[in-house]
Structure prediction request, 91 residues.
Amino acid sequence: YDCGSEMAQHELLSKYLKMPIYFADPGCPWQRGSNENTNGLVRDFYPKKTDFDCVSEAEIKRVESWLNERPRKVLGFKSPQETLQKLETSK
Prediction:
């Protein structure tokens, strides 16, 4: 993870998931390759400085679905959605 405020409670998440959480060094985006790749995919739809007040919830959901259904090399060419479903059924 990067050092953004969204990870302020990372210790709770680590305890809940029973796994360590690692943070990227500042100014080293290559340490978060999957995150940077996803940012690039999002930017295909919404360039920097997009005013999200002008984007409908339905449009955001459409892009979210597209991203979650898109196969990823890092997941063995399965989609994030497929991977999550497999993890949930294996519990």
